[in-house]
Amino acid sequence: MMEKSDNLVIDGRTYRSRLLVGTGKYRDLEQTRQAIEASGAEIVTVALRRTNLGQNKDEPSLLDYISPRRFTLLPNTAGCYDADSAVRTCRLGRELLDGAVLVKLEVLGDEKTLFPDVPETLKAAHTLVAEGFKVMVYTNDDPIMARRFEQMGCVAVMPLAAPIGSGLGIRNPYNIRTIVENAGVPILVDAGVGTASDAAIAMELGCDGVLMNTAIAEARDPVLMASAMRKAVEAGREAYLAGRMPRRAYASASSPIDGTFLT
How far is CA 226 from CA 38, 65, 94, 126, 245, in A? Predict the structure, then answer.
């Protein structure tokens, strides 16, 4: 059984849940609240360019449904395509969330694939770290770049499993495992998860957590899928800690006849 002390630690803060969830694409804010509750997540990422946190007084605020006293709200820079706009967005999040400095940085390369623009992401990360932000960075599944982001002071690295919103699952488990095995900061799969088995595989590879939005929000029953993802992340983590059996080229009998009494 998994020990109670097996928690996710990001920038010195401890979380019981290793599932992080987003707030976009739901039918309404009430469904958003219900899905987040079912997920068991403690970190909720918020796209500042698309979400009202009180800056629009005439619209419902997410803060009326998701309390920052209960959840860690993680501002993200979704929709930013250059370093300058990403940095400005993080500064805005700090103002709206009472000085919050833990942020998710993503700088996209183009509108079709939503792959990260790594040079612009590096540029933004350098500025944000220098300004005291605690950066959780979305990047490609390149082990060299993952190490570079860690060395420059990012508190977590979040490689994609597949393109954002694709639901294709873990396309390159070898790269993800290599990143995990060489990391000194938490590694969380971000983007590409489509269903519960994808989340479990990410955790079995040794990832410290999984962040997802579309896989839950676009499910036929988002609240039920959120519950499934919660269990998948927990099961995948336990399987990783337990250590899987060796793969073999042929079967090995579960009940061998050697050493038994035959009549």
Answer: 6, 17, 28, 34, 29
